[in-house]
Specification:
Order of helices and strands: HHEHEHEHHEH
Structural class: alpha/beta
Shape: elongated
Strand content: 5-15%
Strand order of the largest sheet: 1-2-3-4
Number of helices: 7
Radius of gyration: 19 Å
Distance between the termini: 32 Å
């Protein structure tokens, strides 16, 4: 069964990546473990609850979050640019107010311009994959990563490695590399293997 082989290949690929990640985490485990053990319940809650930062609320939105940031310091936030300018200064202001270890995350499936208007917007994954050039998918991923870092974004929720099994599904749709599981997996693996 080709899906069985695909699953096995995914297992091997991710097993190797996860093994490397586990070794990296283990090297920091004492430092991280000591820090987490010292967290009180409010700090532990904050580490798993990531509030949304919406550009439409601007600095007033950050002001409204101040009590939350103080009481339950979050491990991170999720930024929504809402097609408005000024997201980068908003992220900078957030970082000025928040602890140093705050992670800033964002859905950037169509490039950094999806939420940071001043950055590059890219076609959706399905359009990139339809071109049949894996290098284009890799270049799109690298451009997104570079611009996200420049914008102050630490965690990029992309690419979506879902298979578009139902053409009428409005959630997956063009966010996927396609409707063929093997092609989606191949595209993703080739991108992931090249990323630093």
């Amino acid at each position: 069964c080709r899906y069985g082989i695909l699953n096995f290949n995914f297992y091997l690929f991710f097993h190797n990546k996860i093994s490397k990640l586990c070794n990296l985490v283990a090297s920091f485990s004492d430092e991280i473990g000591d820090k987490v053990i010292k967290f009180d319940i409010a700090q532990r809650i904050g580490q798993v609850v990531w509030p949304a930062i919406r550009a439409s609320r601007g600095v007033e939105g950050l002001d409204a979050l101040t009590p939350l940031l103080e009481r339950y310091p979050p491990g991170g936030v999720i930024v929504f640019g809402e097609n408005l300018p000024g997201v980068e200064p908003l992220i900078a202001e957030l970082r000025r107010r928040a602890p140093d270890d705050l992670l800033v995350a964002c859905d950037l499936e169509r490039g950094c311009g999806q939420h940071v208007k001043e950055r590059t917007s890219l076609p959706p994954a399905m359009a990139i994959a339809a071109g049949g050039n894996v290098d284009a998918a890799y270049e799109a991923a690298m451009l997104t990563a570079i611009e996200a870092r420049e914008a102050g974004i630490d965690v990029v929720f992309a690419p979506v490695v879902a298979v578009n099994t139902a053409a009428t599904n409005p959630i997956i749709a063009t966010r996927s590399f396609g409707d063929d599981p093997h092609a989606v997996a191949t595209t993703f693996i080739q991108i992931a293997q090249q990323l630093p």
